[in-house]
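Justification of computing resources. Each target in the renewal requires a structure prediction run like the one illustrated here; the chain below, 205 residues long, is used simply to show the kind of job we budget for.
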Amino acid sequence: MIFEAFRKEFIDQVCFTTNQVYAWYPAFDKNNLSRWVKKGYLVKLRNNLYTFSELKSDNNIHFYLANRIYRPSYLSLHTALAFHGLIPESIAQTTSVSTMKTTRFQNELGSFSYKKIKNELFFGYAHLDFTKDKTYMIALPEKALLDFFYLYPFYNTEREITDLRMDEETLSELIQINRLQELLSRFKNKALEKRITLFRKCYQI
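Resulting structure tokens:
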């Protein structure tokens, strides 16, 4: 098969599965995918999921692919906190939460990690535009904070919380206390409530 014909069919999908390929062309030779990966035309994201190498530099491509590599999931924790400007340091991996088991995927685009949360805690995210017809899901700033302190309970002293060096000005401007408290109430977790109270004291919000 000629790669250009394949590219024309799938490039607008950004990433694709082998099932989609076979649905389009049942006689497709899967060895083509391995050859195209070796030639640098494609990137293997995980088993049976691929994207096009030419898209690697697209703005927010990591965010869109993170949602697709492991589903259901939405961006949260360090990635969402950095996206919202709440933490200063650059993030070495793309972090998400999922109702599936905790796992991590490594591919040519980097490291994609996923932390498990309960089904009833899968809320508090927004759909942001990636292309004109595609979006990615990322935690609201308040939910990113709650997911972080829920999944990393060892941040439970003033020193540890202060050492996170969150941007106080951005916190005061961005965090809606009413929404933070409403989302917090849905966790029904007293220990988390105490950590959030301490967090608000440390950063005076």
